[in-house]
Specification:
It is built from two helices and no strands. By secondary structure, the chain is mainly alpha-helical.
Length: about 70
């Protein structure tokens, strides 16, 4: 069995080593390039909308009119 001061010295040394490793890992990770967030692609202007999208938009217009009191 280790004496108490040796045990605390070992705990402190291991803790210091772990914290240095963690700080070094964060430092290296902060230098890595970060890809930009993915942007939604815009549909070409001449492309037709699917029929169900038009129906949904029409239904949403009806709901908005009903809520507005028209």
């Amino acid at each position: 069995m280790l004496s108490s001061w040796v045990r605390w010295l070992l705990i402190g040394t291991v803790g210091l080593g772990v914290s240095m490793y963690a700080m070094d890992t964060v430092r290296v990770a902060s230098t890595l390039p970060v890809p930009p967030p993915a942007q939604a692609r815009e549909a070409p202007k001449d492309q037709k909308q699917p029929a169900n999208a038009i129906a949904k938009a029409s239904q949403m217009d009806k709901v908005a009119d009903a809520l507005a009191g028209n």
